[in-house]
User: Fold this.
Amino acid sequence: MTDRSTHIVFLLFPGITQLDFTAPAQAFCRMPGAKLVGAAKIADPIATDSGFSIVPTHDFASALQADILCIPGGHGVADALHDAATIDFIARQAAGAAWVTSVCTGAFLLGRAGLLEGKRATTHWGYTHLLPLVGAVHEAARVVEDGRVVTSGGVTSGLDFALTLIARMQGDAVAQAIQLAIEYDPAPPFAGGHPDRAPEAVTAGLKERVYDAAAARMEQALGRQI
Assistant:
């Protein structure tokens, strides 16, 4: 370990899925030396998908250089894909970061910034078929590491990604202690958190209600230039 702070910069944008941000943030904030930054285009409260807002710590101009850059996802990604300031911020921060990471559909923002070309990657199961549109090769895993690029699946996968990266940086014992401190001992009531295990009718119903349209909107957004 080192005495130097580790700057962990999270991109914040309207329509963010709050758990994509708050789950890894809860793990990273307990890592020795961690300094967390929530950076947004403007340092005003950011509306999440949960009915409440998050207050950024910095705007893009004042954000610290990331050691770990993390791009969360959410339904707001489709709009953020067309914001030149957001994509420029991701690219500039990534250039100086040791680790470039995403949770859920945040992968498409990394892709828009040119960071997934030829990389193995993952995202939320409802969008994995779109990864080739940003030059990525889908790998069926909850957390995918390809060099300094680490992507994770939907929403709760952010906690797995954070613990994985903490272990890479500071050792298994530190990551295990953090996992114990936050009592991350999942025992869900249903073995159905992924289409591979969920009942087919549940998966089909959710796709019809939410993800078919959401993925089509994302595909359309990826096809448009900034």
In short: The two ends are 41 Å apart (CA to CA).
